[in-house]
User: Fold these one by one.
Assistant:
Number 1:
Amino acid sequence: MPVFDFRFTVPAPVEAVSEFHFQTGILKALTPPLMIMKVHQFDPLADGSIGRFTMWMGPVPVPWTAQHSNVSPLSFTDTQIAGPMKFWKHTHTFRAINERSTEVHEHIEFEHHSGLKGLWSRLLFPKPALYALFCYRSWVTRRAATRIWQEQKSAA
């Protein structure tokens, strides 16, 4: 089964990174501006919570439903329960490097369908596109978690 791993460092404590990821509007925030997405449902992050959205790849809608599991302040997993992939399991892990920085590890296990349906998912999600998406997401996460940390320090 193919795997995609992406790691990056955030100049903020692990608590700020976790707080950012637990916000209900995060999916929209982590979506690049040129990618059209409509969120239909995004439950607060908890075991069993659901995220339902539609992405548009040009004029073609791509519906996706994910369920969250293994939710803790330092990690959670979203697994596609309906969507374009045969299998998609994405684990997010946050590890404190020190008091002021955090490593974020994005680990995705995925499998394409066979036949034409698999061709479609391979066109939608080649590894270079995943890399570009997670570069964008790392930039957004760094900015947001740093802002949260600064606000926490100002309030203290």
Number 2:
Amino acid sequence: MMFHSPLFILGFLPLCLTGFFTVGAVAGGRLALGWLIAASLVFYGWWNPVYVPLLIGSVLTNHAIVQMIRRSPRPRAWMIVGVTLNLAVLGWFKYADFLLHSIAPSAPPLHITLPLAISFFTFQQIMMVVDTARGGEAARAEAAGFLPYAAFVTFFPHLIAGPIVRPAEIIPQLTVRDLARPRMQNLSDGLLIFLLGLAKKCVLADTFGSFADTGFGAVAHGATLTFFEAWYATLSYALQIYFDFSGYSDMAIGLARMLNVRFPLNFDSPYQAPDIAAFWRRWHITLGAFLRAYVYIPLGGNRARPRRQAANLMVTMLLAGLWHGAGWNFVAWGGLHGLYLVIHAQYRRWFPPMPALLGQALTLAAVVLAWVPFRAASFADTLAMFRGLAGLNGIALPRMIVSALPPLAAVATPVPLLPSLAEARTLSFPEVSACLLLGWMIVLALPNVHRMSERARTATLTAGFAFSVQAVFFAPHIAPFLYFQF
């Protein structure tokens, strides 16, 4: 069951909202939380009920550890136990096969199936364990009891792919006395934000995904892409992952708002960032906040000497890469971003800020190039795509350009654009070009819709509604969200 499927929109969501507000009106807020937990477990189990006991066991175990932290004279020891246990479970399911293959390539794989959302609900509970040991707002939030804690972890809007919200942000909202009372403002705002995400996913992300899949799929099957083909595929993927994940985040924010819970913003026009540090303050904001608070700052952060700061940045981003997936291509992606951040930190020490447009252009180019290992099926495919981007496989012009400019015919070889393996046809150069131009105009020129005026935002979301409805109910195939694999 996916947020953008008819089953969710027409079935699960209306039943969940109706049951939540009805139980709240009849039996009170605590039973309404119980309904929300049950609905979230049904949502999670719809994918594969085998892993529902894992999620429940994780919640029960971590809640018990948090209780021990609160009551024990040695909270740090219990914190270490909790963090170690969570990382061990995550490591077994997500990295055991990767480590085995890296150490012993000839060994038979373990074939461990990755449980849905394990990276996200593990990080949520690591935050709870660590924050409770540190004291402060998280410790007070946890004192609310088991039901708010279980609802915080299993809450279906963020359970599968975030945002990665801190317990002190959410648990107090779940303990409000009139949480389960319907509020028309929240319902209408939440619905509009949800529809924005729906339009991003179904109208934009899946369109650019078809272009990217064609190019990267051709490379995975041994084909070589020319300069234009490689750049079209790479630029398409940069748009796909932005619209896909920001669309999911908007849908999650909207769903939570309908249930009277406010999530933090997770994307803030990241491709408009003037430098790489600003990019990470705008892209997957909640993951960046987690990495800063629980990895980078404990390592020493900016307080360390330049060499140590550089090492801290590299370690943090390498771990960010591994968090996304067990593969050397994800390590390469994290390493590239770590290198970018190190270069940026050194540049700031010795040089004045560069012009904003130049900084934005360099940042965007660096980010787009780093998406290549993130998307490629293997490290070999990454190198093959980089060869195409560099023009080492030739710079053959698309057939339409050559035919439109006859003088080029004598010096250029016309080629079809992005040969599609799945459909045995070639994609239209004008259509792909127009879509890419429109997509990049949207991400580079338009403001974040969450920061628009109320009238402009309503008009934008309403316009997107018609497109998203058509895409959801008449599309032949509904593609899953990219971040579900993490």
